TrEMBL record:
Highest rank taxon of the organism: Eukaryota
Protein name: Uncharacterized protein
UniProt lineage: Eukaryota, Sar, Alveolata, Apicomplexa, Conoidasida
Length: 174
C-alpha cells in the first residue's frame, strides 16, 4: 500500500467523522452515515458518497471542489455541504422514492406500448444520477430534491442486432 492511498483513506475517515460531528451539532445525530458508502475508484472525484434512498436506490453525492482536502476553509465548507445534503436527502426520502416509482411506472408503460408494437425492448432499471453536494445543501429539502434526476436504463437491439443498454434521464415522470 502506498503512502498516498493510506493518506486518502485517513482523509476519508476524517471527512466522515467531521460530517458526523456536524450532523450532531445541527441536531441530527439520527442520520446514518457509513464509510462503506464511499467510492474512491474509478472516478475523477476524490470520492463519491453513495447515500441510500430507501431499500433499492442510492444517490452519489460528490464534492464540488476536488482540492478541498488541502484548504481548511474549503474543507469546512465541504463538510457543511455534505451534512446539509444528508439532512435534505433524509427529509426528502419519501418524495424522492415517489418520484422514482412514478418514473419507473411511466417507463414500464412506455416499454409495454413499444413491445406491443413489436419492438424488442426491456427495462434494465431505474437509478439516480450523481449530484454535487452543494446542490443538495439548499435551504429546504424541496429545493434540494429538485436536483435529483432519475436515470432509466433500457435494453434494446442496436442497428447491428446486438443488445445494448441506453440511459435516459427523466426530469419529470410525465
Amino acid at each position: 500500500m502506498t503512502k498516498d492511498i493510506d493518506q486518502n483513506r485517513l482523509s476519508t475517515r476524517q471527512f466522515i467523522d467531521q460530517v458526523r460531528k456536524r450532523l450532531c451539532v445541527q441536531g441530527r445525530p439520527d442520520i446514518l452515515l457509513s464509510r462503506l458508502w464511499i467510492e474512491t475508484e474509478p472516478t475523477d472525484e476524490p470520492f463519491v458518497l453513495n447515500v441510500p434512498i430507501g431499500p433499492e436506490y442510492t444517490v452519489g453525492v460528490r464534492p464540488v471542489n476536488v482540492d478541498f482536502w488541502n484548504d481548511p476553509a474549503l474543507f469546512e465548507r465541504t463538510i457543511g455541504q455534505f451534512a446539509d445534503a444528508l439532512i435534505n436527502l433524509r427529509d426528502a426520502e419519501r418524495s424522492i422514492l415517489n418520484y422514482v416509482e412514478d418514473v419507473r411506472l411511466q417507463a414500464l408503460k412506455a416499454i409495454t406500448s413499444a413491445r406491443d408494437e413489436g419492438f424488442d425492448i426491456g427495462l434494465e432499471g431505474v437509478n439516480l444520477r450523481p449530484v454535487q453536494a452543494i446542490h443538495l445543501s439548499q435551504d429546504g429539502w424541496e429545493e434540494a430534491a429538485s436536483y435529483i434526476v432519475a436515470v432509466i436504463k433500457v435494453r434494446h437491439l442496436s442497428s447491428a442486432l446486438q443488445y445494448e443498454v441506453s440511459e435516459l434521464q427523466a426530469d419529470n415522470p410525465q
